[in-house]
Specification:
Helix content is 34%, strand content 11%. It is of the alpha/beta class and 88 residues long. It is globular, with a radius of gyration of 14 Å.
């Protein structure tokens, strides 16, 4: 609705398969653990980088879809456990 009136919208997804079903106008894939979408606690640099990547994607994407990113979670295996629905 907003896009139809010239207001760009973008969401962040951590599970592209869900975004593919929901079909937001634009989405940025950030493969971080749930609850840490923008990065770990006190990791200001990663938090700023995610926000910046979101703004760049919103500005550059001229299509409906999901844009990948270069973000990787390397601190622990929390994301993999969450996706397998295991306790961490």
């Amino acid at each position: 609705m907003f896009d139809e009136h010239g207001l760009t919208t973008i969401s962040i997804t951590q599970v592209p398969e869900i975004a593919a079903v929901v079909k937001p106008s634009r989405s940025l894939f950030v493969p971080h653990p749930f609850g840490l979408t923008f990065g770990d606690l006190h990791d200001v640099q990663t938090q700023q980088n995610v926000v910046e990547a979101m703004f760049v994607a919103a500005e550059e994407m001229q299509w409906t879809g999901i844009r990948g990113s270069t973000f990787k979670w390397t601190k622990d295996n929390r994301r993999e456990k969450q996706l397998r629905k295991e306790r961490h």
